[in-house]
Amino acid sequence: MNNKQYDVAIVGGGHNGLTTACYLAKSGLKIIVVEQHDYVGGAAVSKELYPGWTYSNCSYVCSLLRPEIFRDLELSKFGLQIIPYEGSATMLNDGRFYAHYNDHDLTYRSIAQFSKRDAEAYDRFSRDVMRQCKIIKPLLKMTPPDPTSFAPKDVMGLFEFAKYFVAKDELGGLGEKEIYDTIRFWTMSVRDYLEEYFESDVVKAHLAGSAIIGTALGPYSPGSAYVLLHHYMGEVDGTIGAWGYSRGGMGSITQAMSKSFQAKGGEIKAGSPVSKILIKNNRSYGLVLKNGDEIYANKIVSNLDVKRTFLKVVEQKQLPEDFYLAVKNFKIRGSSGKLNIALDELPVWKSIPVGDPAGTGDLHITQSIEEMEGAYDDWKDGKWSSYPYVDMCIPSINDPTMAPQGKHYMSVFIQYVPYNLANGGWTQEKRKEFGKHVMSRIGNYSKNFNDIIKHAEIRTPKELEDEVGLTEGNIFQGELTMDQLMFNRPIPGYAQYKTPIKNLYMCGSSTHPGGGVMGAPGANAAREILRDLNKKIESHYI
Amino acid sequence: MSQTNISYKQPLLETPFHEKTREKCYAHDWHKWAGYKVVKQYTSAELEYTAIRNTAGVIDITPMHKYSVQGKDAKKFINKLITRNIDNIQPNQVVYALWCNEDGFLVDDGTVFCFDENNFRICSGERNLNWFEDTAIGFDVTIEDISHSIAALAFQGPLSCKILHMLNANKIENLKPFCFDQFTINNQEITISRTGFSGDLGYELWCDPSQAHEVWDALFSFNKDYKILAAGLDALDMVRVEAGFIVVNADLIAAEHALRPNRMRTPYELGLAWMVNLDKEFFTGKEALIKQKNKGVEKKLIGLDVQGDKPAVGSVLYDGSKKEIGIVTTAMWSPTLKSNIAMGYVNKEFIKLGSKILAEIYHPEELEYRKIWAQCKVVKKQFLNLERRNAVPALI
Ligand SMILES: Cc1cc2nc3c(=O)[nH]c(=O)nc-3n(C[C@H](O)[C@H](O)[C@H](O)COP(=O)(O)OP(=O)(O)OC[C@H]3O[C@@H](n4cnc5c(N)ncnc54)[C@H](O)[C@@H]3O)c2cc1C
């Protein structure tokens, strides 16, 4: 029987659980992370599922990870390196391609091939989105204030929140006009938003992609514009909205975090599913593992999504009824699939020449927003999209560690794939059929793709739920819609990483500011816990 | 390379790699280095920087000054010149060296290659023929400026050894840091040293100008599979700061250049005490350096971890009560460390690791400056310390 006593036990070794763990360990507390799998990382892992190939088999690119967290946790020292993207492209049915490059003028000329107006409008669009990103950035770091509370902390917090909207420019705040824009941005559909800038189908389709990744919204759904912002607010070395590969796959992020944690004396218990959080007199005090072992800790932090936490490992009888219902009603719909493909050689596209930087970043095949909305309609009908939106990339072009020499690894993220398939649900055959369908769609744009596939891992929301532990396979641990953001995330009244149970906290992507490999939920939770414990640490983030 | 045809229309010489570098220099962004035209950025410094840390970068370092030192007193002469002791240097070894004037102020730094007891080569950033010849008076040595007769490339990055290995450079992975040997790649016999300015696994390749094109092409032989990039001086400057290397006339003014004597620096002030061997019988500057060692320095070049993400370029440094205590020499955002790093001089009260100081940063923002008082912590100058840099056998 393991019955050691810890200061804090963290359930789940996803990147947020590890981030919380690192910050807490930095303060000298005795911390344990308990992870169900033999490996840590959750949805940020690298796996060798085919000999010689490394797959980032869930998340695949990095931008949102806050640089201050990277710095505080000394992730470079523990082996993490980010390789910036050099471009991106949408391939067209007529044999042309639409591309974005790091070079502004190249991008201008690329867009101008389709519309000179749009090529200029792109600058205005970028400026407006950057302005919104500037507002959001400081909000990410903040614990959302409780608008119903009169506690000094919340009143001050609300003031801080408001400050960014009305402040002078040196605080990153906006003028009156931009405040209207913010509210519009956070509530509009991405289609309507883009319509205000652009006329060309491919320009809109290319830009709208970021607004539907991971959500159960379509480009015509109100609220989808915010999701675009969520994918733009990251950065690589000061370039806002830029993305990059994590060298060695996304697992390098969580491997570096776990090394950083262990270097601070932290303990990781892998291969140990938690079956119950022990609660007495409305206070949590420990964990029960699947094998019956118990672990005791003064505070418990859950990295699981809010549904898994309160419907699976906390007993219902311990929860207030309305809280329980709110958790049940939390929107966490799966809509994404993933293919990880080992390729015998470099795919040659019909449109993008080999060596063009546009072919080394994210690649797409969606021709118009209407096609995208059609893909969403299929999902609503319980089918995978006939014309799926794909966000694909070949990390091995830039990262020499992902595949053997001359071979390649391709990651394909797919929108939309239902969690519950109509007509009898998912079977192994249907999963394979789905994978084949997506690969044949991609094959249409390549000269050799169909002939160079050596192995493919095909993941539907079902696998994401079963293997990763994301309820319904929702990649963000909960929809990013206004009703579930900020002080409403995950549950109104419980947005400050706390729960109705004393000493039980949340730190996963279900909490503010939400999903993605960002670390902000984990770091914010750590700040709250440290504050409750009256501990101070030196940090760039906290 | 013809040196005789001087034309005012061509103030900058072209290195033996010029045809090759021009081909890849899409940005047409050139830099002047010791009278040569070398690439500043091929496409973008960030990209080339990434190659050095992720695959490998090829940098034309031909303009470096190179001197052959031959004769039976060669070693004795060098031991008088430099602050380190090379009594035990073996053939095929390289040492990093500093040389000072009589007052202990740095004249230059460079690398000393030992071919045998009587045959050395010194590579340096500045011109040193006069200094060397004056120092050599009374020694049986011949010093020759061979700068133009050797073409040189730096090949730096985690794949550098792998690529050389794939080019059949015999047992290159066993070459130890600060050693060199003869290797054959692409049918060219050349000298390769495991040295460099990146703080990463890396090599420098030295060849006859006639071999330049073959050697250059060889390094890109496997580019179908591995993205080796030609890298410009901007990228090189980024990696050298992360590695904590100083650049003469950027982080200090060379003693032979300084108009204002108080801008000259001693090795102790540069944090290079480990480079000074005071047990050595005699070397130029020894007396002055003994004095300084006993007395301690008034100011010192240190590393800074600067709060926030705005580089503290040219910042003045202050103590907690906003009294001026120093100045930043070099500052940048480190993409690898995701940290805002800087080097600078601070007064002796603040040279201890962990000392807290303030940097006044003027950050340009659309025609206005935002003034930031950034907290800084004094840290080691070697910001980045990669295991692969010194691993033997090297990563292949
Ligand atoms: C297919 C896919 C692609 C994505 N692509 C990207 C991308 O490219 N870029 C990006 O930024 N984001 C991406 N995301 C989103 C991002 O990966 C997630 O939002 C993020 O990794 C979630 O991190 P987390 O720490 O909050 O939770 P998780 O990673 O879900 O961590 C939870 C951890 O808890 C463990 N656990 C669950 N139940 C138990 C239990 N009972 N006992 C013990 N341990 C348990 C799990 O094994 C897991 O390790 C993607 C997600 C998916 C699924």
**Helicity level of chain A:** 25-40%
Number of strands of chain B: 20
Helix content of chain B: 10-25%
Going by CATH, the architecture of the largest domain in chain B would be 2-Layer Sandwich
Strand content of chain A: 15-25%
Structural class of chain B: alpha+beta
Summarize the structure in words:
The complex is a heterodimer of chains A (542) and B (396). Chain A is an alpha/beta fold. Chain A is 34% helix and 18% strand. Chain A contains 16 helices and 20 strands. Chain A has helices at residues 15-26, 67-72, 104-112, 116-141, 152-166, 176-187, 190-195, 201-212, 224-232, 251-263, 306-313, 321-329, 369-380, 428-443, 461-468, 520-532, and strands spanning 5-11, 31-34, 47-50, 53-55, 82-84, 87-91, 97-101, 235-236, 239-240, 244-246, 267-269, 274-280, 283-289, 294-302, 336-343, 362-364, 389-393, 408-415, 453-459, 504-506. In chain A, the strands form six sheets. In chain A, strands 1, 2, 11, 12, 13, 14 and 20 form a seven-stranded mixed β-sheet that branches. Chain A has a four-stranded antiparallel β-sheet with strand order 17-18-15-19. The two termini of chain A are 37 Å apart. The mean pLDDT of chain A is 94. Chain B starts with 12 loop residues before the first strand and ends in a 6-residue tail after the last helix. In chain B, the strands form four sheets. Chain B has a six-stranded mixed β-sheet with strand order 11-12-13-10-4-14. Chain B is globular. The mean pLDDT of chain B is 96. In chain B, helix 2 (45-54) crosses helix 7 (233-243). Chain B contains nine helices and 20 strands. In chain B, a hairpin with a 2-residue loop joins strand 19 and strand 20. Chain B has three domains: 2-62 and 150-243, Probable tRNA modification gtpase trme, domain 1 (Gyrase A, domain 2), CATH 3.30.1360; 65-145, Alpha-Beta Plaits (2-Layer Sandwich), CATH 3.30.70; 298-381, Elongation Factor Tu (Ef-tu), domain 3 (Beta Barrel), CATH 2.40.30.110. Chain B is of the alpha+beta class and 396 residues long. Chain B has helices spanning 18-24, 45-54, 74-81, 129-135, 160-166, 212-219, 233-243, 286-295, 387-390, and strands spanning 13-14, 29-33, 36-41, 57-60, 65-70, 93-100, 106-116, 119-124, 142-145, 151-156, 180-185, 188-193, 202-207, 229-230, 299-306, 316-318, 324-334, 339-347, 356-365, 368-379. Chains A and B meet through helix 2 and strand 5 of A and helix 2 of B. Bound molecules: flavin-adenine dinucleotide (FAD). Flavin-adenine dinucleotide is lined by residues 11-17, 34-37, 42-44, 58-61, 64, 273-274, 303-304, 308, 313, 336, 338, 413, 464, 468-470, 475-477, 508-509, 515-517 of chain A.
